[in-house]
């Protein structure tokens, strides 16, 4: 699909690939799928290109059609106002080169009055300007291109300030780390009392089982593997490699990790129905584990204490 995605992005078609490969994939979806709509979190540009190439369809993401470029959302719909607002603390400004960047703010008659029975959140996210236009602060940091399209590059609510006054985006790091083969879900943790990041990892259990076979381990229960030092070291090394390959800075890579045997799903309230992590609930549920990660004062340590027993959860 990489071959087709490359050529279709340049405006060409691949009829032979469509006939021999894509037609079989399309039949698995019923053979009549023409349009796919993506909502929720921004779609990874590689995933977007692969889906569009494999299914040979029109892919709609976020605001409008996205046929000319991958990794972006389209121009705003008719009647929707949009603007970028500087966010100095995060280092995003409308004066940035080569393209303006900032928090994406929507306005117009279509904007709702606020969050139901949540006055504090409403006051924080909504405002009315001197012309009477109602605006909604999305919390998404975007980059605006000359053709009017946007690219979501960060999330304001996931930005934290470390002890050394540097800001890091937890959401950006987590999105990158989820591409690691051993990571199913990850919660990166940090705060004003530390210069380091740590992480809770809900591992991909299938790949973790394969890793245990490679290491010749007899214990194949997920709980045992999550406490195995050799397994943790291999997973941590893969996470570091993922971060380095993505080009993030050294300070954005967690210095310690803790593997947890629990799968995070909407059923156990760790994820939303849109499969987004509920950070506050995860941090509350694993409060002791997180404190243990930050309590490790050995600066040479790269993984958490894997010998400690994690309590069982329903």
UniProtKB/TrEMBL annotation:
Similarity comment: Belongs to the ATP-dependent AMP-binding enzyme family.
Keywords: ATP-binding, Fatty acid metabolism, Ligase, Lipid metabolism, Nucleotide-binding
Protein name: long-chain-fatty-acid--CoA ligase
Pfam families assigned: AMP-binding
Source organism of this protein record: Medioppia subpectinata
Gene3D superfamilies in UniProt: N-terminal domain of ligase-like
A cellular component term, taken from the record's GO annotations: endoplasmic reticulum
AMP-dependent synthetase/ligase domain boundaries: 26-116
EC numbers: 6.2.1.3
Xref: PANTHER family: ACYL-COA SYNTHETASE LONG-CHAIN, ISOFORM J (PTHR43272:SF83), LONG-CHAIN-FATTY-ACID--COA LIGASE (PTHR43272)
Domain of life: Eukaryota
GO MF annotations, alphabetized: ATP binding; long-chain fatty acid-CoA ligase activity
